[in-house]
Amino acid sequence: MTPENRQALINWHRTELYRLEQEAADALVNELANDSLLAQCKLLKDTVGIVSAVKHFRAGTGSTLLLAKHAVDRL
């Protein structure tokens, strides 16, 4: 893989992670506005899991698979 291709792939992943963070935050706001306390607690737990996975991925201590698992679990 060329350095340019590697950088393009890194940039794509950063953009995708930012998009996932924004979607999780938007979903949290929407759910908190419309749901019961129990549902709010569950959603908050799910969102924290996604954000944690993103932070570990960015720090190089997590995996794409873990990040994808949290995103799919949230759907």
Counted by DSSP, the helix tally is 3
The low-confidence runs, each spanning 5 or more residues with pLDDT under 50, are none
Q: Give the SSE string.
A: HHH
- Strand % is under 5%
Number of strands: 0
| Distance between the ends | 33 Å
Task: Please give the largest β-sheet.
Answer: none
Helix content: over 70%
Look at the helices and sheets and give the structural class.
mainly alpha
What overall geometry do the principal axes of the alpha carbons give? elongated
Number of domains: 1
Radius of gyration (Å): 14 Å
Q: Average pLDDT value? A: 72
Write structural notes for this entry:
The protein has 75 residues and is mainly α. It has one domain. The protein has three helices and no strands. The protein has helices at 3-34, 37-59, 64-74. α1 (3-34) packs antiparallel against α2 (37-59) and α2 (37-59) runs antiparallel to α3. The chain is elongated, with a radius of gyration of 14 Å. The protein starts with a helix and ends with a helix. The model has no long low-confidence stretch (mean pLDDT 72).
Secondary structure elements and pairings:
Layout: H1 3-34, H2 37-59, H3 64-74
